[in-house]
């Protein structure tokens, strides 16, 4: 028997939106908590849902490939945004094909685009999800002088507990999204000092 939790959740959310007397404006006070929550919830996707799909694959070439892990994270986390923007779902006019922001000049700088493989890679690095990441972790700590050396003289790094690694990734994502929100909606907080002085003079 299929669970009705997800349809019920979306039904309730849609009803709340429909019965709101006024849709709140996008301000720093309303968007900042949502940005932090977005970071925490997306960490679950990037750390607990996507990696097992690759790591449990029956082909060893797939399950042990770091590139497969990163590309899967990139595609899985961004396909929805890409399709929505490509078909103009959020625009007030009828569905039309348009170039997604990620495909425009400097679109690669979009935070949502590159944070997915970055966080999944960080999680894999900390937890030694694949042999490559275990070696990379040991090498990195060796450069920093924080790794231990085993009896054979090889640099070894212990994996981090998956829950701790996910918490670290969630904190990083929450900070990244919160900074972006503050920059976009913070107003005078992010204006250069010279620009503020110029406005006062005028």
What can you see in these coordinates?
Strands 1-2 form a two-stranded antiparallel ribbon. The chain has 8 helices and 2 strands, in the order H-H-H-H-H-H-E-E-H-H. It starts with a helix and ends with a helix. With 202 residues, it is mainly α. Strand 1 and strand 2 (155-156) form a beta hairpin. Helix 5 (111-127) packs antiparallel against helix 7. The longest helix is centred in the N-terminal third of the chain and has 28 residues, at 28-55. It is globular, with a radius of gyration of 22 Å.
Q: Can you give keywords for this protein?
A:
single chain, 202 residues, mainly alpha, 8 helices, 2 strands, transmembrane, membrane, transmembrane helix
Classify the secondary structure makeup into a structural class. Answer: mainly alpha
Mean pLDDT: 84
| Share of β-strand residues | under 5%
Q: Kindly state the percentage of residues in helix.
A: 55-70%
Low-confidence region ranges:
none
What value does the Rg take, in angstroms?
A: 22 Å
Keywords: Membrane, Transmembrane, Transmembrane helix
Transmembrane segments: 67-86, 106-126
């Amino acid at each position: 028997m299929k669970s009705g939790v997800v349809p019920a959740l979306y039904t309730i959310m849609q009803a709340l939106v429909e019965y709101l007397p006024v849709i709140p404006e996008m301000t720093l006070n309303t968007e900042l908590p949502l940005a932090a929550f977005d970071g925490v919830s997306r960490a679950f996707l990037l750390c607990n849902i996507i990696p097992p799909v690759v790591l449990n694959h029956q082909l060893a070439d797939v399950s042990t490939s770091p590139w497969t892990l990163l590309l899967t994270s990139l595609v899985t986390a961004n396909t929805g945004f890409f399709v929505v923007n490509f078909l103009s779902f959020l625009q007030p006019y009828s569905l039309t094909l348009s170039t997604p922001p990620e495909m425009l000049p400097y679109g690669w700088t979009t935070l949502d685009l590159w944070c997915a493989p970055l966080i999944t890679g960080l999680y894999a690095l900390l937890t030694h999800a694949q042999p490559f990441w275990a070696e990379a972790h040991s090498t990195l700590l060796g450069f920093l002088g924080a790794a231990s050396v085993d009896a054979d003289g090889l640099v070894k790094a212990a994996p981090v507990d998956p829950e701790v690694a996910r918490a670290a990734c969630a904190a990083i994502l929450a900070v990244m999204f919160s900074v972006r929100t503050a920059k976009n909606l913070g107003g005078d907080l992010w204006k250069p000092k010279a620009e503020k002085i110029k406005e006062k003079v005028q």
